[in-house]
Amino acid sequence: MGKKKTGRNIFGFDGSFINICDKIFDVMALGFLWILCSLPIVTIGASTSALYYAMVKCVKKGDGYIAREFFRSFRLNLMSGCFIWILVVAATFAMHLNIGILMKETDGYVGLFFICVYALTSVFILAVSCYVFPALARFDMSSGWLIKLAMYMTVRYFGTTLALFLILFCTGAIIWRFPILMIFAPGPVIFLMSEFLERVLKKHEPGEEDQKEEPVREIQKRDDKLDLQEE
């Protein structure tokens, strides 16, 4: 009989020192790739989707090479990622612009009420963005359906949404104290967030019957998205 394992795995790792070091290197390397591909600013959405895809497939599931999978997802989701990111930025800018105007031009409870409404809307947009780019990496849907799905997940899985906000808040507090850590943050942050997001995304995977009904010409296209669903 083999020896009984007494130690617990660390986030799915086998616990060996070399393997853990290798995974840490992959996490940090993916973070640097994200920074590189986010430099044009408009590509942040596609870069975030690629980071999530490669993090889950290569780091957590040990399948493939990080650079190859990152750029594969980046190319596949470039247009949709940029479009959704522009919508997120535009909506957030509009909310903050309205808040600024109200703070200068109004006073009293009515102005305060609308300031709170716009502020809460900004928070909701941030929450939706936490779901929509991982969903883009996983599902083959139009941008509109991805946004609707992300909005549903934000409300339906409120506990997960709070956990994601906690990760972002703690990361922001650390970076505020030590700004240099900003260049090391993207990889670890997405790794931690994927622990919660994967539990949600797996609940919305298409069933076998749904996949059998799809035309053959769509199979290869969807394989690029759905291979994260394989065990």
Give an overview in words:
- It is a single chain.
- By secondary structure, the chain is mostly helical.
- The chain is built from ten helices and no strands.
- The longest helix is centred in the middle third of the chain and has 31 residues, at 108-138.
- It is globular and about 60 Å long.
Q: Which helices and strands appear, and what pairs or packs with what?
A:
Layout: H1 17-38, H2 44-60, H3 66-76, H4 78-105, H5 108-138, H6 143-156, H7 158-177, H8 186-201, H9 208-212, H10 219-226
Helix pairs in contact: 1-2, 1-8, 2-3, 2-4, 2-5, 2-8, 4-5, 5-6, 7-8
Which descriptors would you attach to this protein?
single chain, 231 residues, 74% helix, globular, disordered N terminus
The helix content is: over 70%
Q: Which residues sit in consecutive blocks of at least 5 with pLDDT less than 50?
A: 1-8, 211-222
How large is the radius of gyration? 20 Å
Q: Helical element count? A: 10
Structural class comes to mainly alpha
Strand content: under 5%
Could you spell the SSE succession in H and E letters?
HHHHHHHHHH
C-alpha termini separation: 27 Å
| Sheet having the most strands | none
Shape descriptor: globular
Q: How many separate structural domains?
A: 1
Mean pLDDT: 86
Tell me the number of strands: 0
